[in-house]
Amino acid sequence: MIHHPNKAFNSITVLIIIVLLVTVAAACGSTISMKQPEEINMADMSGHAGHVQGAGAGSPAVAASCAEMTEAPSNAPVKRFELTAAVTEIELNNGKKVEAWTYNGLTPGPELRVQEGDRVVVKLTNRDVLRGVTIHWHGVVLPCSQDGVAGVTQDAVWPGESFTYEFIAKHSGTYWYHSHQRSSQQAQKGLMGRLIVEPKASAFSYDRDYAVTLQKLEDRHVLTNGRAGGLALDAEPGETVRLRLINAYNRVQWMGVAGAPFRVVSMDGQDLNRPGLLEGQWVGIGGGQRYDLLFTMPASGKVRIYSKQEEKWSVTLGEGVEPEKLAKDAPVFDFTAYGKPKDDGITPDMNFDRTYTLKLGPVNINGNSGHQVPPLIVKEGEWIKVRFEHLVGGDEHPMHLHGHLFKILSKNDKPLTGSPIYADSVMLFEGDVYEIAFKADNPGLWMEHCHNLGHAFVGMTMMVNYEGVTTPYRVGTKSGNLPD
Ligand SMILES: [Cu+2]
């Protein structure tokens, strides 16, 4: 991590700003979220003072409603699940009792495992979460109506109601799901879980496949797959383990692997090309991001994976001698020069139909907040480049795009030299500039926001809207749809 002399000051300043904003929001009545208007149409952003960025290239597409964009019928194998959201008193393994908001009485909710190509059908029922719930399938490329964003792709599901999601799991990988109604509050209260899409044919071979959620329930209880004090998993010497790490917390976690060399084989669920062996490096996983690690169990029998900042986020595999921990100042993993290149024709200097620059403030985008940020307008078939700049100071921002995978083109204007990196998020620390590219091939209305959900709550969120796409749903205090 780069240390800036003014970093501590900036972090404190940002914290104070957030605390003030949240306090003001709370004082304004707890049913009213920060800066949320009475009613807003996220498709045309009517009711806000901004204007759309970019001139419309050519005539607008034929109007189509997000609500009608569903998965086409197919012969894909169907995997069905039912998830019931409820207010639940849970008892942690350390004896502490917590009022959590759960799916099926659990937090994280049940791990959903499907195969690449499956048709996933999930019936969500809200038993008694008064302010409504949804499920957003974080990182999954799916039709607009299934994205689970309250007020954009559906209405929040109120107590006693149900909503059934249906989508094809096109891309294998490590994903997660969480409520996108009042997401900053609801994910932290427990409304989230893992979604693992197993590959038809894996690029890597392994004997064990584990997925692990790093969570801070109610911002207090440090839990690893719901367990306080860390998680212990079985693995025998000589076995190869794929460990899928999901950071469901808002802040970056620097994860160390003690006891074995390892590879980062996947980021945000997307496999890397020929990743090399690493040892003694901290791997920074931003809020909402997923990293899959692959390692072979040593003869000494034990591997420990743990967070530098919060060692209670810990996974041990196997039994044996406790491995030596990483030095706190060990180098950090750099994905910009890791693995081998593979030509996919997507380069920083290719021809883009539209290029946008998003300057990230401490908790805003281009100086605006939430619905005041003009949406990025795209048209189906176009290639889009987005340049993120995090130059004014503050916490790291894991910027997440719904409905698409993008390619990370460059960091600080230097093109990546290793494996292509496809992702649904890119994390920027103070001083960072990244360029990403995506093809506008999934018509809809898609959020683009910081996955530090505290930042999203105070306005670090915006839309990527396809020309001509409409929605019957509304965000605001009138509908009660407040996605954050
Ligand atoms: Cu942020």
Count of DSSP-assigned helices: 3
Task: Output the strand order for the largest sheet.
Answer: 12-11-10-14-19-16-17
* Main beta-sheet annotation: 7 strands, mixed
CATH structural architecture of the largest domain: Sandwich
Low-confidence stretches: 1-11, 17-33, 47-61
- The CATH superfamily of the largest domain bears the name Cupredoxins -  blue copper proteins
Helical coverage, percent range: under 10%
Task: Round the mean pLDDT to the nearest integer and report it.
Answer: 91
Domain Plastocyanin-like: 88-201, 213-299, 359-465
InterPro entries: Cu-oxidase-like_N, Cu-oxidase_2nd, Cu-oxidase_C, Cu-oxidase_fam, Cu_oxidase_Cu_BS, Cupredoxin
Keywords: Copper, Metal-binding, Oxidoreductase
Pfam families: Cu-oxidase (PF00394), Cu-oxidase_2 (PF07731), Cu-oxidase_3 (PF07732)
Give the SSE layout.
Blueprint: H1 7-27, E1 64-65, E2 78-91, E3 97-103, E4 112-115, E5 119-126, E6 136-138, E7 162-168, E8 173-178, H2 183-188, E9 192-198, E10 208-217, E11 221-224, E12 227-228, E13 231-233, E14 240-247, E15 253-258, E16 262-267, E17 270-271, E18 283-285, E19 290-296, E20 303-307, E21 314-317, E22 354-359, E23 376-378, E24 383-389, E25 397-401, E26 406-411, E27 414-415, E28 422-423, E29 425-428, E30 433-439, E31 445-450, H3 453-457, E32 461-466, E33 469-470
Parallel strand pairs: 1-33, 2-5, 4-9, 10-14, 13-21, 22-24, 23-32
Antiparallel strand pairs: 2-3, 5-7, 6-8, 8-9, 10-11, 11-12, 14-19, 15-18, 15-20, 16-17, 16-19, 20-21, 24-30, 25-29, 25-31, 26-27, 26-28, 26-30, 31-32
Copper (II) ion (CU) is lined by residues 397, 450, 452, 455, 460.
